[in-house]
Design goal:
Oligomer: single chain
Structural class: alpha+beta
Helix content: 25-40%
Distance between the termini: 71 Å
Strand order of the largest sheet: 7-6-5-4-10-9-8
Shape: globular
Largest sheet: 7 strands, antiparallel
Number of strands: 17
Length: 402
């Protein structure tokens, strides 16, 4: 067996080796990574591989299965991250370098001090989150044990492009985050003294919605206003800037939650700093009498706050209505199909949400969408309410605006 085939076989064995972390991407956790950085000694997925290609001085990648792995690769190509001075051992070959490193060892070096508020992207997250996480780790080395002390971001001020509430035009707006006061403000005039809105960190969420907003750095900020959910859609040309804003908001949220729930450990608060929607998409709904015409609406399921919100359009500033989702013991249920005698408009795959106050009758564009919605809804209904859920459960139960 030649060197190339022997190295390929050994690399495939390394992917399956226990206690190495190699079975999942070192950067986003995706299962079964097919690529490797032979300058860093890690196994990564195809999406993260695309990011690594953008900084060849730090990382160089090859396919584990499709590319040739010569023993001489690392000796010929290695950069400062592969030096014995940094890693503490000699590097005889590409394969040996992968053997002596691996995902867990490299993560222990480059993720030694990741702050609790810092968002670590998952496999299904957008590209800008993965790119800035990878650059923060390997290019800027922000989380290494011997780096500078990491402190909370604190106050922040800058400009973001914000979508107008009543039109689709994005305009440059000044945003100011006051972490200690727990406030986010934005101004319509650069030198303005009176903010257009003052947003409490208590009710704030931020989630990247790049496809919906139509920009690779698109961020959706939501907060409570007069009993409704207000949506702000913003972006920045710089990926680093928008991710820094995102993590600054998460840090401010962590400060607030620690004060509001001093009895809870930090690990239980982190999932509530920001959250992604469990599922989004179009469905058609009828009214409370179930005799009204079915109308197409955009739905978003917030599993942490146990709310199903619906909008006329995906980029609306306010929701048309929302449903608080308790649990089965409280009389909440989601089941397949429509009540007897009710037929949808264009879509026939129906589902019904039962609350103590009323039934919400919906139709989905396909059976696949129907099953995905049912799985998501039932997952929320089967989970117990948390202390944070109980803050809104009494006032939000089964509420619908229209």
């Amino acid at each position: 067996m030649g060197d190339r085939e022997r190295n390929k076989k050994r690399l495939l064995e390394l992917l399956r080796a226990p206690d190495t972390g190699n079975a999942h991407c070192a950067d986003c956790g995706a299962a079964d990574p097919d690529w490797a950085s032979y300058k860093l000694g890690i196994f990564i997925c195809l999406n993260c591989c695309g990011v690594h290609r953008n900084f060849p001085d730090i990382s160089r990648v090859k396919s584990v299965r499709l590319d040739f792995w010569d023993d001489s690769i690392v000796e010929a190509e290695r950069g400062p991250l592969c030096s014995p001075a940094l890693w503490g051992w000699r590097i005889p070959s590409a394969c040996m370098f992968m053997i002596h490193n691996g995902n867990l060892r490299v993560k222990a070096k480059f993720e030694a001090r990741v702050p609790a508020f810092y968002y670590i992207p998952q496999a299904n997250d957008c590209l800008v989150l993965k790119e800035q996480w990878i650059r923060a780790k390997y290019e800027r080395r922000e989380f290494m044990a011997d780096g500078e002390t990491i402190s909370l971001p604190g106050n922040r001020e800058g400009f973001l492009w914000k979508r107008g509430r009543d039109n689709s035009q994005f305009l440059r707006r000044k945003f100011v985050l006051l972490a200690r006061e727990g406030l986010l403000k934005y101004f319509t005039k650069e030198q303005g003294k009176s903010p257009k809105a003052v947003i409490s960190i208590k009710d704030l969420n931020a989630t990247f919605q790049t496809e919906k907003i139509g920009h690779p750095h698109g961020l959706q900020i939501t907060y409570r206003r007069d009993g409704h959910t207000r949506n702000l859609f913003v972006y920045h040309e710089s990926g680093k800037e928008i991710v820094d804003w995102f993590n600054a908001l998460r840090a401010a949220r962590l400060q607030y939650l620690k004060m509001a729930f001093p009895e809870l450990p930090e690990s239980e608060l982190v999932p509530f700093l920001t959250r992604n929607y469990l599922k989004q998409g179009f469905m058609e709904k009828t009214g409370p009498k179930q005799k009204e015409p079915f109308k197409k609406r955009w739905f978003a399921l917030d599993c942490h706050e146990r709310r199903l919100l619906y909008y006329k359009n995906p980029l609306d500033a306010f929701e048309q209505g929302q449903v608080f989702l308790g649990n089965k013991e409280q009389g909440y249920e989601a089941y397949e199909d429509l009540p007897k005698g009710i037929r949808g408009n264009r879509w026939k795959a129906g589902l019904t949400i039962v609350t103590p106050e009323r039934r919400f009758v919906l139709t989905c564009p396909s059976e696949k969408e129907q099953q995905e919605w049912l799985e998501s809804l039932r997952g929320v209904l089967s989970s117990p309410l948390t202390p944070l859920n109980r803050l809104t459960a009494s006032t939000e139960s089964g509420r619908s605006s229209r």
